[in-house]
Specification:
Helix 9 runs parallel beside helix 13, helix 9 packs across helix 15 and helix 15 crosses helix 16. This protein has an 8-stranded mixed β-sheet with strand order 3-2-1-4-5-6-7-8, with helices on both faces. Helices cover 52% and strands 10% of the residues.
């Protein structure tokens, strides 16, 4: 049954920049509790309506509650929102306090490293019996929290549940569209992080706007090929979760994955870059999973392949771009 948005209690698990931003949005619409692993973050949100570690001095909705107790956060929730990085998603989700049958929505744009599973598939394994879906789109946390106009798509297998959840997540300047293509939305969100690294490398190497447009448009083609081969709907990849999120992540200086590419182009190692970041850049680990999925489904992905080689095999960004231009183009809708 679709949740009653007038009474729904929301628990957001994960206090990074996007999880906190979504929790602040839902707190304006319904009762919301945010779970933070670190007690000092929960205390700051409760006391000062700030999460300075991830969002600086951006004010959060004063109605948002926060706690470092998982039981307190989720035991009464009618909707569970997961905002935990992919590498810790399964372990955090295994908390024993989740009520049966409630919808679970993932905000995580990544793939599980060893199993190659999407986050909704991980939910189905750990907590079977729940309606599971994903919220994704071109959503840079600081811009959304500041109040710039933005939009996202909520994808659930049941269209009625997706429509009911729209009102929980929306604001006047944050539009939420409904979809039933959970796989497509989820794959698009994971792949765009890999391609953002390639766009960052292009920026770091000082290439022109023509080159960056080439990289982004051909990245969209690769994303669409793999996503449809896996069962996603083609129109999803031309929408908010596909082209929209890809553009935002590739062009914005706020993008963590683009920053990784820029730093690689400046000659820094992956280990050095990660050590300087207090938030996860999902594209680093996802690059390996994407190439494994591409091989499984027989899909050629030259840009993703070069990103993988730079991140995992010591290839330089200069070598990666030279490698891309050695491929012979065929028709625009073909593989290269």
């Amino acid at each position: 049954m679709a949740p009653d948005t007038r009474q729904a209690r929301v628990a957001v698990v994960g206090s990074g920049s996007w999880g906190t931003t979504v929790a602040s949005i839902t707190a304006r619409n319904t009762s919301t509790v945010l779970w933070a692993r670190r007690a000092e973050i929960a205390e700051e949100i409760e006391r000062d309506h700030l999460n300075s570690a991830y969002l600086g001095d951006e004010q959060l909705d004063p109605r948002l509650r926060a706690t470092s107790s998982m039981e307190e956060a989720v035991s009464q929730a009618d909707v569970l929102v997961m905002a935990v990085p992919s590498h810790g998603f399964r372990d955090v989700l295994a908390a024993p306090h989740v009520r049966p049958w409630i919808p679970i929505v993932s905000l995580t744009k990544g793939l599980e490293l060893d199993t190659r599973l999407r986050m909704t598939e991980v939910i189905d394994e750990v907590l079977p019996g729940h309606p599971t879906g994903v919220l994704a789109g071109p959503n840079l946390a600081q811009e959304v929290l500041t109040g710039y106009a933005a939009a996202a798509v909520i994808a659930m297998p049941d269209a009625h549940v997706a429509r009911a959840l729209q009102d929980i997540f929306r604001r006047t300047l944050f539009r939420v569209y409904a979809s039933t293509d959970v796989l497509g939305v989820e794959i698009a969100g994971a792949l765009k992080n890999v391609f953002a690294i390639s766009a960052g490398m292009a920026a770091g190497l000082g290439t022109g706007d023509n080159t960056r447009a080439l990289v982004i448009s051909r990245s969209l083609a690769e994303m669409t090929r793999l996503g449809t081969a896996m069962g996603g709907k083609r129109h999803t990849f031309a929408g908010l979760a596909g082209m929209g999120d890809l553009l935002a992540t590739c062009i914005s200086p706020l993008s963590r994955n683009r920053r990784v590419g820029e730093e690689l182009a400046r000659g820094r190692t992956i280990e050095e870059i990660i050590a300087d970041m207090n938030m996860v850049a999902e594209g680093i680990k996802t690059s390996r999973v994407v190439m494994e999925l591409a091989e499984r489904h027989g899909v050629e992905m030259p840009i993703a392949r070069e990103v993988y080689a730079v991140v995992n095999e010591g290839r330089t960004p200069e070598e990666a771009y030279r490698g891309l231009f050695r491929t012979r183009p065929t028709t625009e809708l073909a593989a290269n």
